[in-house]
Amino acid sequence: MMRRYVVAPQWSWYSSAYDVALDVLLTVALLLSTASQLRFDGAPVGPGEICLALWGLLMLSREAARLGPVLSRPLSTLLVFWLSFAIAQCVGTMAGFVTGDRHDSGLFMHDIAAYAVAAAVSCLSVVEPGASSRLHRVAWLLVTCGAAWLLLQVAFGWGLVSLGDFDAWEWDRFRGLSDNANQLALLCTVLVLLSLHLAEVVRRFDRMIVAVICMVVAIVVGRLTMSDSFLLVLVLAGPIFVTLKLWKWLMSVERRMLLRSASAWILVLALPLVVSYVTPLGASVAAEVEESIKGMTKGGGGRDTEETTRLRIELWDGAIRRGVEAGMLGLGPGPHLEIPPTIVAGRLDPTNEPKHVEHPEFGDIPNFEAHNTFLDLFVQGGLIAVLSIVWLGAAALSVTRRAGLDALTTSIFGLAVFGIFHLIVRHPIVWFAISLSLVAAANSRRASKRRVES
Fold first, then answer.
1. In the predicted model, what is the mean pLDDT of the chain?
2. 335, HSE (Cβ side, Cα atoms, 13 Å)
3. pTM, full prediction
4. How far, in Å, CA of 91 to CA of 193, rounded?
């Protein structure tokens, strides 16, 4: 006769508390990972990276004690991607060595470490059992604690609180405790998309209101960064989400969504868009009454659209040329582009710059990036790396679409749009969003299968 072992209540409580502590640690790590100004002087790591390393070690030790995780579909998908991605980077490194490519060894090791952390966060986040509930809980912690963290940085930027000797403004762009405004804009983008997902799947109206409030906070702060990429994601995400919702309603036989519910969803989606357009006006008024913001405007037309477009085209053309010259095999991790002459000629006087602004080192070794995820990966890992990331994105879109998770489908679209203008695959919070999409879709598919069998 088989014995049934029952876990003692005390051990069950301890295990649950330990899981919650790990989730809180992961939340803190993801939020602080974008606060680059908190890193120690001269060190590539800070509180966020230390928390990520501690979380990874604790998760690895737990999985080792359980003799390894179950090979679920999300974990298999991520393992296939990271294996092909690692092969692409290795092939690119060998190709760069054969062709005599010159690169910055420090930035080379930086990318290797960043990719290793991203792989650990994505794979350890999806391990079973309980991956769905765990990631859902972390998502709630991220959007709520993230909203509070953003508000704290805004209060610091306006001089309402003191957090130390940091500069929260990059000329007229708000960057909080990040090194540049685009880092903060990426955090706001992920928080907006996660909040949209939670507002979609939650059943209680009060929790839906909380998710929408957190989304509005992230939108306001994201607009303060003056990131064109963030605004583009915001403008595209609403219509994509509404289109997916309308398509689901039209294709549904029962059409359970009433007109009142549809109107409520339209209002929920319209509110953040209205806030996004009102925010610049509010920021302008605040800039007039706050002396600390005066004089921080960036002179010389640095954000001129034509100049920015010309610079991007120059970078992207250089990235394509370097990738083709490498035989589409790549050149290995790290940047491999020459600093554009426009930046060399137009560098501002360091005495008038904000604190903690990092510039690329001018020298004989190429150390600039294309600021495009697909082109940067094309230069690093060649066609294999590009196909790997495209395959992963297509797989995530496919599973979320089939599962009817419209907000997560919109999130993948949004991250892809943001990645066109920035290299985002090194940021752990991006991989958390991808892991959440894969796990939520797999859990929805299992739930549907159980309903059919019952």
1. 81
2. 19
3. 0.84
4. 35
